[in-house]
Amino acid sequence: MFNVKLYYLVFLFSVFIYSQKGDMINHIYEGNKEANLEKYSEAEIKYRKALSISPEETKALFNLGNTHFNDKDFDEASQRFFQTQKFSNDKNEKHMAFHNMGNVFMKKKDYAKAVESYKNALRNNSKDDETRYNYALAKELLEKEKQKDQNKDKNEDKKNKEDKNKSDKNEEKNDKNDNKKDDNSKNKNEDQNNKSKKNKNDGSNKKNDQNKKRKPGQLSSDQVKSLLEAINNQEKNVQKKVNVKKVKGSPIKNIKDW
């Protein structure tokens, strides 16, 4: 009796599994029809229904990746292709998943990852001409990108050196101008000092010339001036004394008293 129940349960489970698998296959089939009509949103719904039944179903993952790729959702497409090669044990499926991953990275202009993806695709199928062509193209574009980056770095270095040289020249020019200003200021001060000295020397020389022109025993103009002032002062004092004597010597008349 126990064996009969067990057999019955195994039978029901088999039917359920077969039914689930049938539903999954139907969802994939319907998703393919929607994808062929370029109805990518509807196709995505069908593939996700299939994956809700079997999350590691590689056909549903691969086709969902193609749907994202055609809908230009490259990040999602890359994830689905990665899951496909991860869960698949079939070399052909792995080859197609890596090939399409390479196509995603080419669209994103990530040529280094594209080269690696095509290389992995060729490891699983080295005879695919399209993969070999894409691999060669990705390598060429990667080399051009590296060369472009190197040239850009060289140009930046060159520009930085030119800017530095220009800056150094400007600093040198400014230093020269500052030195020139200092020299001019110094020369100007020296000219002023020389001019002042010259004026003093001219005055001294003029005085000396005047002294040289005087005859022996002749008074200078300053001495003459001082002597005249002394004589004038002396004359004033004498006149004062005379006036005083006159006042004292005058007779005083009596005033009549009527």
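Next protein, fold it too.
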Amino acid sequence: MKTIPVFFLILALLNSCNSKKIITAMNEPDSILIRLIEKNKTPSLQYIIFDKDSIIHRFHSGFADIKSRKKADESTTYHAYSVTKTFTALAILQLAEKGDLDVNLSVKKYYPDFPYSSDITIRQLLTHTAGIPNPLPLSWIHLTSEHQSFDSKSFFKNIFIRNNKVKSEPNEKFRYSNLGYVLLGQLIEEVTGMTYEKYIQDHILKIVHDQFHELGFTIDNPKQHAKGYHKQMSISNWILGLMINKRKYMDNAEGKWKPFKDFYINGAAYGGLIGTPDAFMKYIRELLKSDCRLISEDYKKMIFTENHTKDNEATGMCLSWFKGQMNSNLYFAHAGGGGGYYCELRIYPDPGIGSLIMFNRTGMRNERFLDRVDKFFLGPR
């Protein structure tokens, strides 16, 4: 009988261990995500982790439409809500790079109708340190049937009149504000002479994705759009009734879920983007590249530099992106959530990796869900 040299036994064992680690990395996050579907925590979800050239791992499961039993797939679109703010900030930095504005100067210099103090700078709006109110509940949606007649400028003019006082001094403290990003959208329109949506489409979306039904501000293909759901038997469903007219905006229950009718966000600049997971992946991939077509390295560095208050306290917020750590890996992230949908985007600059997850169920806070699944692929540094 032939004997196998110890060296080859060790090598075979190491290869086996590495294979098991790879299989474990693939299986454990999928198990977590599958359980969410099986336990009825969401009708559908999509997860992708990737680098600038390839997809490391992808998962999608569940129903985009429970009633019709239509499954979610790579062509399914979701509302991205506040993830849109990162596009708004990028647009502002593009204009700064061209010399059309200076983020360190007063908003009023470029937008005379700005309804707050001339002491507030563009940078402070970007970093949520301008003290702009964030009134709740804020009527945030209108039906697709109302979209043609909806006047965003008039809608928000009345809200600014009712919320005309700041909550803190410029750069005194971090105070998240959707209204601050409404004003950034209006600033983009004032400086460029274009609608906010048109500027974003021409200067960001067309560069990262040439198919508008996969990334834009409208539901161009209703058959591919995931219906948004809210858990019917929940305290949050009762609270939702205090915030919106559920008879107007929601349909009859489908199993344990109550669906939203198709809608658009009132404030496009703080939450209006709709797209497939792949379209948002292409956006993050572009930001991962050293030869990014969207912005130069110097201005990209500005986007991902953490802001400090006037008392030199770190805020955890860059120019629209939150700064964090997971398994000792630095990341920049933004979550987007509201009625019917929740998502998270992340960039891990050191390993050059991005990730995202999208759900068609309500999310009202930053859940940091990617912590639970990204860790299998990133490990401690």
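About the second fold: The domain at 42-378 is CATH 3.40.710.10 (Beta-lactamase).
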